[in-house]
Amino acid sequence: MSRSRKRLLTACGIAAVVVLCFAYGYFIEPYWLRVNETEIRIEGWDPAFDGLKITAVSDLHAGFHPVDHAMLRRVVETVNSTEPDVIVLLGDFVSNHSEMSQVRMPAAEIADGLTGLNARLGVFAVLGNHDGFYDTDLLAGEFEKAGIRVLQDEVSVIEQNGKKLRIFGMIDHLHMGGWKDFNLKKRRALATAPAEGQIIVLQHGPDIFPAINALDTFGEPYKLMLSGHTHGGQIRFPILGAPMVPSSFGQKYTQGHITENGKHLFVTTGIGNSILPFRFMSPPEIAVLTIRTKTE
Predict the structure, then answer these.
(1) Pair type for strands 86-89 and 256-260
(2) Which of 165, 218, 224, 265 is a good FRET partner for 53, with 20 to 30 A between their CA atoms?
(3) What is the pLDDT of residues 51-103, one digit of tens each?
(4) Phi, psi of 211 (to 5 degrees)
(5) How many angstroms separate the CA atoms of 59 and 272, rounded?
(6) What CATH number belongs to 32-293?
(7) Coil, strand, or helix at residue 84?
(8) Domain-wise residue ranges, the chain
(9) What is the pTM of this model?
């Protein structure tokens, strides 16, 4: 076989692999809705809430490939099948057009698609940066009609076995204009106003995690933060990881369970896509977290 023919066959082989990867990333992986179960053991976690099951969903970007009405119903059915104690929705429900105030699926349709989510202790949501570019009040209003409690710098208290647990939903710092107007002292006052119970923080993006820890913002009661936003990188490669992560910390908070200074963070890879209609080695995820009291 001539050298030129070998080059041609090699080029054709590479082209075929590239085409197959694109096809997989568009037609297959975005529809692969996996349930990822994780046990998080926290030192000092209130034994009254030992075994608390939290199911987390983030980054639907409804209306953008592949999240249509059928996918929303599939998400609801899958989430309910995990039999959670608490459901948390971690923002970026909308998918914006280039004109950020326009979305591919109206808020009322997204809320209708999420109707029926059911958890023993409640369904809670925070809004993301894309939601902030659109209309947070409109989204919150539609979600409340669907039985979803939207927390915008607000605390909701749940009770179990005679004890209380505070869920503090923070307004996303990105749609607050970055760090400029993001007053952590104010949020400490908001989070700790109901003075009883440990604190779980819901925040769309994970980048605020080290700032909260460094300042010990919420004190000893704060144990866990749940976030999305990163999409797990959305496109990942072997060895290299995710070349583009929407985080100031690179790949540090891309996905999964992270522990720093005794505080815990879980970042879910989310459901939908942003900018590009592809996922590669970062499949959509419904995260099921079982929170345990850490013992020696």
Answers:
(1) unpaired
(2) 218
(3) 999 999 999 999 999 999 999 999 999 999 999 999 999 999 999 876 666 89
(4) -65, -40
(5) 6
(6) 3.60.21.10
(7) coil
(8) 32-293
(9) 0.94
